[in-house]
């Protein structure tokens, strides 16, 4: 998912350089949402991994 966020970020930067403001804003919004979802999933799985690991061992 972070890969897709980076792809949309690059597309938004290129669109911004070439002056496609609607496309740039849309892809930047998608990239931002995907980035925060990826960070949220990372934190959730980190917490779950630490708690499950402690309960198993």
Q: Look at the structure and give the mean pLDDT.
A: 85
Number of structural domains:
1
Main β-sheet description: none
Helical proportion? Answer: over 70%
Proportion of residues in extended strands: under 5%
Please outline the helices and strands:
Layout: H1 2-18, H2 21-56
Can you characterise this structure?
This protein is mainly alpha-helical. The protein has one domain (2-56). It is built from 2 helices and no strands. The longest helix has 36 residues, at 21-56. The protein is rod-shaped and about 55 Å long.
Spell out the key features of this protein:
single chain; 57 residues; 0% strand
Entry summary:
The protein is mainly α and 57 residues long. The protein contains 2 helices and no strands.
């Amino acid at each position: 998912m972070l890969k897709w966020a980076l792809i949309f970020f690059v597309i938004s930067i290129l669109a911004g350089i070439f002056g496609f403001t609607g496309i740039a804003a849309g892809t930047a919004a998608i990239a931002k949402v995907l980035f925060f979802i990826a960070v949220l999933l990372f934190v959730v799985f980190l917490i779950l991994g630490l708690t499950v690991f402690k309960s198993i061992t």
